[in-house]
Design a protein that fits this description.
175 residues; mainly alpha; Rna Polymerase Sigma Factor, Chain: A; Arc Repressor Mutant, subunit A; 2 domains; 8 helices; 63% helix
Length: 175
């Protein structure tokens, strides 16, 4: 299928097509997310050359991790979890212990940096949106409240409960 024929497909459909071997679907996803991923990495890394190097690693890891994707969850959350993981790996390789977020993370939240990208798949779509929005897109609680059509207090609860849920699942306390 041509890239133009994929215009009407959403991200999740494109990823499902890519899983069946449709390279045009991957090209379309790449085109949609090249700029946002690159901008995010430049913001976090500060240097264009370094961002380009890490950028390449992100899409290679997406390719290697593609079979972990479940189309009932948002593709964007899956992709940016991979991006964040690759960024953390970059800092580890460089021997730096840096906080990826623009604000300090509390101890429970800092565990996000240690979790594999497939951890987001344990969350409901609303929870994924809240976590990805807060920690990958650096959105405020107010912005997330508008996006999720709820109160800021409820967004804080969603994030808190989602973090607790992930922690229980990934530490083996829940099956």
């Amino acid at each position: 299928m041509s890239i133009q024929g994929l215009r009407d497909h959403n991200d999740e459909e494109l990823m499902s097509l890519y899983l069946t071997g449709d390279q045009a679907a991957f090209s379309k996803l790449f085109a949609r997310y090249e700029r946002p991923v690159h901008s995010y990495l430049r913001h976090k890394l500060g240097k264009r050359e370094l961002a380009e190097e890490v950028f390449q690693d992100c899409f290679m890891k997406l390719h290697r991790s593609r079979y972990l994707y479940d189309s009932k969850y948002p593709f964007k959350a899956f992709l940016f979890t991979i991006v964040r993981t690759v960024l953390i790996d970059h800092y580890r390789k460089a021997g730096r212990q840096q906080n990826i977020s623009t604000e300090p993370l509390e101890s429970t939240e800092s565990a996000l940096a240690e979790w594999p990208e497939e951890a987001m798949l344990y969350l409901a779509p609303r929870e994924q949106t809240a976590i990805a929005g807060r920690y990958l897109d650096d959105k405020t609680f107010q912005e997330l409240a508008i996006q999720l059509e709820t109160s800021e207090t409820n967004v804080r609860k969603i994030i808190s409960r989602s973090l607790a849920k992930l922690k229980k699942i990934l530490t083996g306390q829940q099956t």
